[in-house]
Write a structure and sequence with these properties.
mainly alpha, 3 helices
């Protein structure tokens, strides 16, 4: 059975076209009999209209366009101020390790940086940068 809309061949058991989803019309005439034209020649049905197929710009996922008057605020991830402070203190310990108590302050800088990075939610933004700097300064 062919779809009357797009011309796709479908199994006879389908009620809807597998290509376009339109309802399929059952054949009213039994097979083997053809309707006759007015002058006695067999009636030939016009070929079904072909759809243009997939066009890249049509359909698909549509993204909503915000209205000009409604400016929605951009949601930033919440900052963990305690962890940021801990990372900055680690940087200060790392810098202080060059001046006084190099081993102790360097180890503290590395530990503080590691504590900050240990939480998955701290592995982005300023907290991550502060922790990495503290670790690098402590290693040097």
């Amino acid at each position: 059975m062919f779809c009357g809309e797009c011309g796709t061949q479908n199994p006879d058991t389908n009620q809807f076209c597998k290509n376009c989803g339109r309802p399929l019309r059952k054949a009213q005439q039994p097979l083997g009999t053809q309707p006759m034209g007015t002058n006695g020649t067999p009636y030939v049905a016009p070929p079904p209209a072909q759809s243009p197929g997939y066009l890249p710009g049509e359909g698909g996922i549509q993204t909503p366009v915000p209205k000009e008057g409604s400016a929605s605020p951009v949601e930033l991830p919440p900052r963990d101020k305690k962890m940021l402070v801990l990372g900055i203190v680690g940087i200060l310990f790392g810098i202080g390790s060059f001046l006084r108590y190099p081993y102790l302050l360097a180890i503290l800088a590395i530990v503080m940086g590691g504590v900050v990075i240990a939480k998955p939610e701290n592995r982005k933004g300023a907290v991550l940068i502060a922790a990495c700097i503290a670790i690098l300064i402590g290693i040097v």
